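User: Predict the structure for this protein chain, please.
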Amino acid sequence: MKKREGFPWYLLVLICFYVTCGALCGYLAADQLGLHMAGAEFSTFVLHIGILLVSMAIAMLAHTVIHELGHLLFGLLTGYRFCSFRVGRLMLVKVEGRLRLKHLTLTGTGGQCLMLPPAMKNGKIPVALYNLGGSILNFTVALICLLVFLVLPWMLFVSEFLLMSAVIGFAYALTNGIPMRMGFVDNDGYNAISLSRNPQAMRAWWIQLQANGKICQGVRIKDMPEEWFTVPDDEAMRNSITATLGVFACSRLMDEHRFLEADALMEKLLHMDAGIVGLHRSMMTCDRIYCELIGACDDKKLLALRDKTQRRFEKAMSKHPSVLRTQYAWALLYEKDRDTARKYRKCFSESERSYPYPCEMTAERELMQIARDRTNVV
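Assistant: Here is the predicted structure, written as structure tokens:
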């Protein structure tokens, strides 16, 4: 797999941007505090700084919700239907016509609003407003907060929150709206550009959302239409959205227990110049580790796959069923550690109640059983 060397440029951009926003926020706050707190006691000044920091935390959470509501609002306006809505770990998902509260963590995402797309017409569906809706709403709310802050006289708590909400809202709008590849995932602006310029990417986008809707309805990936999982050619795989179809094809092979084919395809995709995002690369590596564990179980290959970067990813996604399944197989088949394997099984069972997709849990439980069948110790 090709690895990018040096400091990630997107991270440098984000750091510079947020430092600038923080400096602006600090300047405005100091200006307001200087105007309205002349002669105030030091303890009062510290109190206001504390209020400013709390306001920042609340504003960040509020704008995360606002961002996902923007996707939901503009999705509904352009013919999409609700599927799931997540902020942090908390997720509302529509199951059998009812909303249920579940838990899901995805590295690199603060939230996510997934919807079922309308039918394609002449190979197209509306994509720009759905993708950019979050940034549009962040920007709109930020602008309103800034105007209210400038018009109203200084008010304790209220003014601090309006100031922070304006700065953070603009930051969210720009960092999500300006096209960037940001580590584990691509941002909304990047997706909007990719979709608008590439008919293959638009079809792949439609398939991704349809597949997610099927999973919410309890349909396993192996039971979905086979034509959805054709691997694009090498040139098409350069696009990050189209490349997801290749990732889906690997997942289907895993669900069908065609492990040799799955591993061969994953190895090919991970070593080619493809636009597969970081999150999918790490999940595919997780699957490759599992395939090797239940196959040849070669020490050298396993240690190369489960390097420091992969272990760090597993730690960040420690509650995800695919990660737990692979860690269970690792403890059982590589380390020969019965107690640790049992702990992973217990953690898997505990996460089953809150995980939003029961059909995926069923598939992962089958894979754990296959690993267990390789030995009689657990």
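The radius of gyration is 23 Å.
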